[in-house]
Amino acid sequence: MQTQQTPLINPFGVELDLEKGLMRGAKNHLVRRASDMRGYYADAAALQRLIGEENDPVHYEVFEVPVPENYGHLMYCISTLRPGLVGQEYFMTKGHYHSIPNTAEIYLCLRGEGYMVMKTAEGKFATERMTRGRMVYVPPFWAHRSVNTGTSEPLVSFCAYPAEAGHNYGDIAVQGFPKRLFAKNGECVVA
Amino acid sequence: MQTQQTPLINPFGVELDLEKGLMRGAKNHLVRRASDMRGYYADAAALQRLIGEENDPVHYEVFEVPVPENYGHLMYCISTLRPGLVGQEYFMTKGHYHSIPNTAEIYLCLRGEGYMVMKTAEGKFATERMTRGRMVYVPPFWAHRSVNTGTSEPLVSFCAYPAEAGHNYGDIAVQGFPKRLFAKNGECVVA
């Protein structure tokens, strides 16, 4: 198991705000705005209106304090996905595979409501409900995207994955996921 | 990275109670009572009194829904450590190394207060404060034990670690950790 390649580091602690969905002193702070999401939503004109007329709103933020990207270490983050719609489609993350495809990811939902939307490169598709206290297991090989189906609350999750996993956007920017989540007459519709 | 050895499974979700510190439908439910902790506390007579005169109280519980113990999968649990004293020593877990020593573990504290107490086989020692919203990173190679220093609240943590890591009690049952946590005049003393 490549013992010699796992750096020995000292223990540490990180302060999270489990309600606001942020990490104090994070070294990496990813912010995705509407303008970063071009090509991901069904209604490109609605996205363009958000960018131009509503001040390019933030879709999601991810906070990390990185560790060595070697076997045996674990990366972790807290992510906050804002509520909102692009046309009728709920705000969502881009979604990703892992660069090392056979690595899992765990999401512990701390606030809000939504879905984890998942697929495999071979065409399998699945969704799992996210709500406070629900942990979603994204198995190895499954690409995953979170979607906020709430009307006012952020979707806050704590996540963990093998530190060597990496991110791979693969076919997602081009093909997306097999289904999208829309708000129709106040209901969430998977279509 | 042993792709062929990582089983492909379907996504799933698990319901946790983040306040009570339990997992609904857990397949593994570990309960450690005072009588399971013989040899771990400094004051063996005080532990024996707890067992005999106070109905052998529960020290901690761990809930899991297992996944395949292969590279790329992640094991996770919610653990609840009760408040209490054995003589002057705070209730604690046994502590463990991982059988694959170069694997980390993440603890996200959800309720209560205490410490993660850690050591390496080479004699390094560290503690990290645990309190709601604080995440403690237990790096690869570090044995770890949690200690509840509160007076009334359980110490509730969500944890994640590589699924192949395994548990190794190693030298802990015989040598313990270099220091213990005691309540003296209402203060936590590391000695």
Molecular structure report:
The structure is a homodimer of 191-residue chains. The first copy, chain A, has 191 residues and is mainly beta. Chain A has a 6-stranded antiparallel sheet, with no helix packed on it. The longest helix of chain A has 10 residues. The model of chain A has no long low-confidence stretch (mean pLDDT 95). The interface between A and B is large, with 55 and 55 residues. Strand 11 of chain A pairs antiparallel with strand 1 of chain B, so a sheet runs across the interface.
Short structural description:
Chain A is mainly beta and 191 residues long. The first copy, chain A, has helices spanning 44-53, 172-175, and strands spanning 12-17, 22-23, 28-33, 58-64, 74-81, 85-86, 89-90, 105-111, 113-120, 125-131, 134-138, 142-148, 155-162, 181-184, 187-190. Chain A has a six-stranded antiparallel β-sheet with strand order 3-4-5-13-8-11, with no helix packed on it. A three-stranded antiparallel β-sheet of chain A has the order 10-9-12, with no helix packed on it. In chain A, strands 1-2 form a two-stranded antiparallel sheet.
Secondary structure topology:
2 copies of one chain form a homodimer.
Chain A: E1 12-17, E2 22-23, E3 28-33, H1 44-53, E4 58-64, E5 74-81, E6 85-86, E7 89-90, E8 105-111, E9 113-120, E10 125-131, E11 134-138, E12 142-148, E13 155-162, H2 172-175, E14 181-184, E15 187-190
Antiparallel strand pairs in A: 1-2, 3-4, 4-5, 5-13, 6-7, 8-11, 8-13, 9-10, 9-12, 14-15
